[in-house]
Amino acid sequence: MTARVVLGVSGASGALLALAVGEALVKVGAEIDLVVSSAAKLTFATEADAGALERLQGMAAHVHAIGNVGAAIASGSCPVTGMIIAPCSMRSLAAVAHGLDDNLLTRAASVQLKERRPLILMAREAPLTLAHLRNMTAVTEMGGIILPPVPAFYLKPQTAEEIAAQIGARAVDLLRLGPAQAQAWSP
Asked: What are the residue boundaries of the Flavoprotein domain, all occurrences included (predicted)?
């Protein structure tokens, strides 16, 4: 059976991270349910080339409108393996931490938590306020995984794409869909 994974993209800086996660999911043969926030569309327009968002949408088996809280992925009966939000804005983090299911991205994240499925949030902000830290703690206590997109400098990446690819592979590896895709540290 093919793994079905929800990929949420919020408005934080990091369009390249969303693309890298999408590519890593395709590489492991996952079926992608994509939800992109309005702010994420603006981020793509600012940070990526003209066709980047369309390429990401092309990787998805299902593209859901952010306002469609009646989509299949808004229900725990929808058989998904887990969800990654890449990048995850502090607004989306706060909504997940406090159960504010006001759009499909945050509702789908809440579903993962209530169903005890993996939820990986690529929290993208610096520096962090106490509110951010408390929200990260709350999500972690509920079973979510906070994965800040920290580069693996020990791999000596040469491009931003290499950095994003490693981080994206690391996020997908946390879903345990198969053999690890991220390059391992080796002394």
From this structure: 4-166
**37 marked as binding residue:** yes
Find out whether 97 is annotated in a ligand binding site. no
154 appears as a binding residue in the annotation: yes
Fill in the amino acid letter for 12.
A
Q: What averages of pLDDT result for each successive group of 10 residues across the chain (187 residues)?
A: 94 97 98 98 96 98 98 97 98 98 97 98 97 98 98 96 98 96 91
Whether residue 94 is annotated as binding a ligand: the answer is no
Q: In 9-31, which positions are buried (b, 16+ CB within 10 angstroms) versus exposed (e)?
A: bbbbebbbbbbbbbbbbeebebb
Domains in the chain, start-ordered, CATH in brackets?
A: 4-173 (3.40.50.1950)
Is 92 annotated as contributing to ligand binding? yes
Predicted TM-score (pTM) above 0.85: yes
